[in-house]
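Progress report, Aim 2. The chain analyzed during this reporting quarter is listed below.
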Amino acid sequence: MRSLPRSAPVLSGPLRLLIAAVLAGIVVLLSVKLNAFRDYQIAEIAIDVTAVAGLTMLTGLSGQISLGQGAFMAIGAYTTALLLLHLNWPFITALAVSAVATAAAGGIVGVAAARLRGPYLAGATLMLGVALPALAYVYPGVFGGDQGLNVVFTTPAFLGPSFPLTRWQAWVSSAVALVTLVLLANLHRSRIGRNWRAVRDNDVAAALDGINVAAARVLAFVVSAVCAGMAGSLLAIVTGLVAPGAYTITLSITLLTAAVIGGLGTLPGALWGSLVIVLVPTYVTDAATSHGLSSSVGSNIPIAVYGAVLILVMLAFPQGIQGGLRRLLAAFTGPDRKSRTWRAGPAPLTAQRDEAPADQHEKEGTT
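Predicted structure tokens for the chain:
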């Protein structure tokens, strides 16, 4: 019999917590050694990881596309800003309320999205991503209009007055991102995750197997919306300003691009994709400036680089960076190193008669 390709390793709950603790320690050490700008980048990467992780679960596991992730981030950001500004609530409480608010919004959108497929679903979520942030212009007395709302976020007193605010923002954002990844990893391996994969692969077969297809799709939207809402809440305290210009459709497309580049359906892929969308603009813009290009030209180069990176990843590794890393690892550590294959799926079935033992052929010849 032929050997089947090995699947991705299953990490136990304690091992996931250990990995999260190690990553938290790395973030703390890096933030202490780096300057304020790098701390800000760490916070930005953590925010994007939180949003992209929810999107990759929605698109990669349940098979639903969303171009409205930026709108859910806007809900979380404005909810946090209003609670901190008018009620002076603690951030952790505002974060929880923002998650509940985006869960409700995600449930409403999910009910409608459960009846849509393909480009119709993409168009509906695109409309959401365009229309919802525009409410800030319609109700400027509540949402601040074009100027937005200012958010005041300070370091806790026990850290002392000289503790850098950017470092504290990096710690808080990274903590939320790591907790989100651990919870999503558990969800990925649970019955809910299996239901999502079944609905994605064949919704008719999933329904015949007793899975509530509509409920599974709605729940996927709720989970994705909660992740986006928490990311928006974090973005509000890191930037100190919540304005509609930060939550345009460009943000939603950028997050979807990060999910595709990193690898849909894989949580580590959310990290790789977030690293790309945060670090590429910085280094590309610096390189353009060092070569004497104007700021208007240099600011547009990252967009072209995004497209080039996306095309290259899709050509070389259709399953994203994480899928490419798995294939590279399997090529060098697989059980059959002599016949390494770069195919994403199992090898085709072939006749096994020639591989039968010699004595079996002799028996067949005598009968």
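Residues 13-247 form one domain. Strands lie at 149-150, 241-242. These observations will guide the mutagenesis work planned for the next reporting period.
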